[in-house]
Design a protein that fits this description.
single chain, 211 residues, alpha+beta, Helix Hairpins, 2 domains, 5-stranded mixed beta sheet, 4 helices, 36% helix, elongated
């Protein structure tokens, strides 16, 4: 199995696969039944129609089974959603500010960049803000997306576990140049991040200074 950039990816992909498999089974089953009844009950010359009476157990079955199936999809989807909403203690906090048509990232030491740099295997909490219209910070490779709202602070959490560069896009239509509102999240080793950051950060993080 190939490694994934965050553990959240595994859960989201598993939920998606579960929903797709359930949907395909239902599609094939319903289609097969429809075709069967088309041939079994097609109109024949001289055939006299008869009343069809209800079947209480059949009606209960086709209500209970779809209900349980939908509830299971909701449960697995919700547990996956909670994974990037439940932030562990002392994450490394970065503020993401959205505006037409760019993202700016502000670090606890005052540094500002248009690219999000984060250390590997460190819980990252992004505080999301907008200074104009509504935006949405979306990292496709991490399977996470959250709105940046004017007048309200939002957040997202992720734990990067693979070094690399990943696209960030705005997923909320925000005006003329919305399609060009792209940047990157770059996951780097601790030592490289310390050099880029310009000083100690992990001790501050563990002490709760950045929370």
């Amino acid at each position: 199995m190939y490694p994934t950039p965050t553990a959240h990816v595994d859960n989201v992909d598993a939920v998606t696969l579960y929903i797709v498999i359930a949907s395909v089974i239902l599609l094939v089953g319903i289609t097969a039944v429809m075709i069967y009844f088309v041939f079994k009950y097609n109109r024949k010359k001289g055939h006299q129609p008869v009343d069809i009476h209800g079947n209480i157990w059949l009606e209960i079955t086709w209500i209970v089974i779809p209900t349980l199936l939908v509830l299971s999809m909701f449960y697995y989807g919700y547990t996956s959603y909670r994974q990037f909403r439940d932030v562990p203690d002392n994450p490394f906090v970065v503020t993401a500010i959205a505006r037409q048509w760019q993202f700016t990232f502000e670090y606890p030491n005052g540094r500002k960049t248009d690219t999000l740099y984060v250390p590997i295997n460190t819980p990252i909490k992004l505080k999301l803000r907008s200074v104009d219209v509504n935006h949405s910070l979306y990292i496709p490779a991490f399977r996470i997306k959250m709105d940046c709202l004017n007048g309200k602070e939002n957040y997202m959490y992720f734990l990067p576990r693979e070094i690399g560069s990943y696209d960030i896009a705005c997923a909320e239509y925000c005006g003329l140049n919305h399609a060009h509102m792209y940047t990157k999240v770059v996951v780097v080793p601790d030592a490289e991040f310390t050099t880029w950051y310009g000083g100690v950060w992990r001790q501050q993080n563990e002490a709760g200074v950045t929370k």
